[in-house]
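Per your request, structure below.
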């Protein structure tokens, strides 16, 4: 995934709870600005969407790691 600003990498370092708070704040900012400065509202909305995308990707990544660990233990292989 192309991430020239590093925002996705930075968001992935946050905890799920921190990402949830950030998404909530940025969604609130999007609503606030939508009426007075639509371009700014769109920017905040897009940033909140990126947070949700990163959160979903991190959940999938963690599930994969858990599955890989279970598979390795069950087969007797070292993880």
């Amino acid at each position: 995934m192309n991430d020239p600003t590093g925002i996705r990498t930075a968001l992935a370092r946050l905890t799920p709870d921190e990402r949830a708070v950030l998404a909530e704040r940025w969604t609130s900012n999007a609503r606030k600005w939508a009426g007075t400065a639509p371009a700014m509202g769109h920017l905040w909305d897009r940033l909140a969407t990126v947070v949700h995308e990163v959160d979903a990707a991190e959940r999938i990544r963690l599930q994969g790691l858990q599955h890989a660990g279970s598979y390795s233990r069950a087969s007797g292989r070292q993880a």
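The chain has a mean pLDDT of 87.

Regards,
D.
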